[in-house]
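Q: My labmate handed me this sequence with no annotations at all. I'd like to see what the chain might look like in three dimensions before we decide whether it's worth expressing. Could you predict it?
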Amino acid sequence: MSIPKILEARPLDSYKIWLKFNDGIAGEVDLSHLAGKGVFSFWNNYENFKKVSLENGRSLAWSDEIDIDADSLYIKLTGKKPEDLFPALKEESAYA
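A: Here is what I predict for the chain of 96 residues:
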């Protein structure tokens, strides 16, 4: 499996975002659990949330301080586990 890249991102109501990835997977991811917390207080003005930008297909960004990695968004959207995206995580270390 190749590393997922975001092709499209559209902000929706209620701190949700619609994403389309390069493998054809598309759908909504709910980010409302982040709103108002720490750096995400930037979203308290909802206009700021709507100003999302795509950074090289590898993350979404709202400012210099806020970005969310494509891998974590893909996992949230698909329900996959990190090991599904990164098979090396399944391998046990030969060194203890």
